[in-house]
Amino acid sequence: MSNYWLAALGLMLVLEGIMPFLFPSSWRETLRKVSQFQDGQARFIGLTLMLCGLLLIYWMK
Length: 61
Description:
Blueprint: H1 2-22, H2 24-34, H3 39-60
């Protein structure tokens, strides 16, 4: 079971690193815009991303 967690963590790190590696200036500008979101907006985005991730995991099983 721990192998799956490590594989998932590794895949997440690879996916997270693609944008700053390929498009550093666009990535920096996007982070600048995201940092100006209200708390409610950031929470809604976080909730939406978590639910999408859970749905993907559910559909994979």
